[in-house]
Specification:
Blueprint lengths: L7 H10 L7 E12 L5 E13 L2 E6 L12 H23 L5 H41 L9 H23 L3 H31 L3 H4 L6 H34 L6 H32 L1 H4 L2 H6 L5 H30 L2 H5 L11 H27 L7 H27 L4 H14 L6 H4 L10 H5 L6 H20 L6 E6 L1 H10 L7 H4 L3 E6 L3 H8 L13 H6 L2 E7 L16 H4 L22 E4 L2 E8 L11 H12 L12
Parallel strand pairs: 4-5, 5-6, 6-8
Antiparallel strand pairs: 1-2, 2-3, 7-8
Helix pairs in contact: 2-3, 2-8, 2-15, 3-4, 3-5, 3-7, 3-8, 4-5, 7-8, 7-13, 8-11, 8-13, 8-14, 11-13, 11-14, 18-19
């Protein structure tokens, strides 16, 4: 489990078992097993299998491939699609992080959803319609100069833009299954109706009844007047977004005071929405400034430039905050590489750890500071704009205006550099998308709760207790359960089961083994061993989501403890995703009271802080953390040092005569 290419993992793993004095004989097959997709259509998935025989030992290797369900596709289109999935899916991570006891956490969670709905709904819809108008202005100006200034022709162009927007929304809404995209289509329809109504209202009523509009029209003539109205509307939406973010700041502080609060998760719940606001606040103004400066047709229209002048200081605020964050990130990277230069396994086992790269504590403080300063500046600019004061009358406004002059010359080349680096950043996108998909959820309904003659389905208690249905995670787990059931039904004797997993695959393996739906595993297999490599279990999930993933000696993991006989975790000392797993230190009352009916029903009651250990034996379960050299997070399956440890972990048996079977 763990490699994104089908069949590749099993090839690398089989190669690790071969030696010169012990040649292998193998037969490769593909097992097609059924699964149920999200739309309740039955489909199949392949499980690559190899039967290997060497001397007196026989193994069956079966690859549980799930990269097609959770990975960034190859090519530019696939990478861009993956980036959009990450940007639009981070709200699920923030929601789960805030799913804690207390009214402060409750409203932090709700305001995070409201912030996301504003960004991905009206803000994105208005911006998209503005882009359609911008293209229309370019096209008409190239064909008929100054046609945008007339009275009748803008009505024709605006009507055409409205028809295009309606067609796009209707087509996309019918082919998508994403709630985010459906929400965007709804708000695009609302924006289209607003522009259409505004067009008719201005032409038939405002121009005749309010002559004062004639004083404004020379600055924003014809079609640009409607662009100006949409820009003002966009500014009001950003003002509302800033107020929501201020409310989140208050709820964040209140939630931190709760006695059962898990603070690392609350930091994530606040910083992710703030980061999303910062990303869109950087992208949207940058697009307009780049269009104004980069398109020759628009650069010749002074009226077009004045449409967006009032919104430009927002880009200056974002650029200043970006500079501070990049400086802090650079310092963190320098610390990391200095540590890595002198790092070795001995120092790692004595407790020397690399600076945390993923949401480092010091970087969290910088994010929080930049968010507070950015919210204050943008809120102040919005208030000044609403009250009718020019921001250039104040020193901070003039400074931001100066920053805007450098924004395009700095950020646009930076954007081009990012486009060149995107293909090389695909592994990082894969990691982030795994986390997003892990926490992606949708509301449950009765169809989800019904078994429907299916052995593996969502638990009825999920529906009855109103829990979140993590549909993509459930789809990944289903494949592993199908493979285990296949080997359960194939043999009458009890083979040994060894599950080897890497990265996010370790989370799939751990949670499947902790699932009551596979309670038959111990009766069908002689022994169950788990090998994890580069596991984010403790380093990420227990650290940032301890309210969902408590310590291993808690009742929540009672099924896992009953099910496995040995757990070996292999990690590289500089792995920024997964290092050592926090195994239990000692026997505790929680370990004793591990019956299935003791499992908690809500996330808040599962809260416990994880502990740390290197190696131990507890209740006949062998836990061990094995560290290897500094070579990052990827390519565990082809690492010679790791493969030597895997051989020892797989074949370390006194009898040396038992058949080994791995699934």
């Amino acid at each position: 489990m763990g490699d994104p290419d089908p069949g590749n993992t099993i090839s690398l793993f089989a190669r690790s078992l071969a030696t010169e004095d012990c040649p292998l004989q193998e037969r490769q097959e593909v097992i097609w097993l059924t699964e149920k997709s999200e739309n309740d259509h039955v489909q199949t998935f392949p499980a690559h299998q190899r039967k290997i025989r060497s001397r007196d030992q026989t193994l069956e290797l079966c690859e549980a491939f799930w990269g097609d369900l959770s990975r960034v596709r190859r090519g530019w289109v696939g990478v861009i699609q993956g980036i959009f999935q990450i940007v639009f899916g981070l709200r699920y991570v923030a929601y789960v992080a805030a799913d804690q006891p207390g009214r402060g956490a409750y409203w932090l969670k709700r305001l995070g959803l409201i912030s996301s709905k504003i960004l991905h709904g009206p803000v994105l819809a208005v911006t998209f319609f503005l882009s359609i108008l911008m293209v229309a202005v370019c096209g008409t100006e190239m064909l008929w100069p100054d046609s945008y200034k007339t009275n009748v022709w803008p009505l024709v162009v605006l009507s055409g833009c409205a028809m295009i927007a309606l067609c796009i929304s209707q087509i996309v809404s019918r082919i998508t299954r994403s709630r985010v995209v459906s929400r965007f289509c709804f708000w695009l329809d609302v924006t289209t109706m607003f522009v259409t109504g505004l067009m008719l209202l201005k032409y038939f009523f405002l121009d005749q009844s309010f002559p004062v509009l004639a004083q404004v029209s020379p600055r924003h003539p014809g079609m640009l007047w409607h662009c100006r109205v949409l820009v003002v509307l966009l500014g009001l939406l950003w003002f509302v977004e800033i107020q929501v973010l201020l409310g989140m700041v208050i709820c964040w502080f209140i939630s931190l005071l709760h006695p059962r609060a898990y603070r690392p998760a609350l930091h994530v719940a606040f910083l992710i929405p703030a980061l999303a606001v910062g990303i869109w606040g950087q992208v949207v103004p940058l697009v307009w400034v780049s269009a104004k400066e980069g398109l020759g047709v628009l650069a010749k229209l002074p009226e077009f430039a004045s449409v967006f002048d009032d919104a430009l200081p927002f880009l200056g605020v974002q650029l200043m905050m970006l500079a501070v964050i990049l400086a802090a990130s650079s310092v963190l990277m320098v610390r990391y590489f200095l540590w890595r230069k002198n790092a070795n396994v001995e120092r790692f086992e004595r407790g020397s750890r690399a600076p945390r790269l993923i949401i480092n504590n010091s970087l969290q403080l910088v994010f929080a500071f930049c968010t507070a300063v950015g919210v204050f500046l943008v809120g102040s600019l919005c208030i000044l704009q609403i009250l009718g004061y020019a921001y250039t009358d104040y020193a901070i406004g003039r400074m931001l205006a100066e920053v805007n002059k450098y924004a395009v010359s700095v950020v646009v080349p930076m954007g081009g550099l990012m486009l060149l680096l995107i293909p090389h950043l695909r592994p990082a996108f894969d990691i982030v998308l795994d986390v997003v998909n892990h926490f992606y959820f949708r509301p449950t309904d009765m169809d989800d709760a019904l078994v429907d003659d299916d052995e593996f389905d969502i638990s009825e208690t999920t529906f009855e207790n109103g829990k979140l249905f993590f549909s993509r995670r459930d789809a990944l787990h289903l494949r592993i359960k199908r493979i285990l059931a296949h080997y359960r039904d194939q043999y009458d004797h009890q083979p040994e089961l060894v599950i080897v997993s890497h990265s996010q695959g370790t989370m799939v393996a751990i949670e499947v083994l902790n699932d009551e739906e596979v309670c038959w595993v111990n009766n069908c297999f002689k022994s169950v061993s788990l090998i994890t490599m580069g596991s984010p279990f403790s380093h990420l999930y227990q650290h940032y989501f301890g309210h969902y993933y408590p310590a291993l000696d808690q009742p929540f993991w009672s099924s896992l403890r009953r099910r496995i006989d040995r757990w070996t975790n292999v990690c590289r000392i500089d792995d920024f995703v997964g290092t050592d797993v926090s195994f239990p230190l000692s026997k505790s009352p929680a370990w004793e009271s591990s019956a299935p009916n003791d499992l908690p029903n809500d996330a808040a009651s599962r809260f416990q802080r994880p502990t740390k250990i290197t190696e131990m034996v507890q209740s006949e379960i062998v836990y061990s953390n094995l560290a290897v050299g500094a070579r990052g997070h990827l390519s565990y399956w082809s690492d010679c040092e790791v493969l030597d440890l895997l051989r020892e972990a797989l074949f370390e048996d006194d009898s040396k005569s038992l058949q080994r079977r791995a699934a």
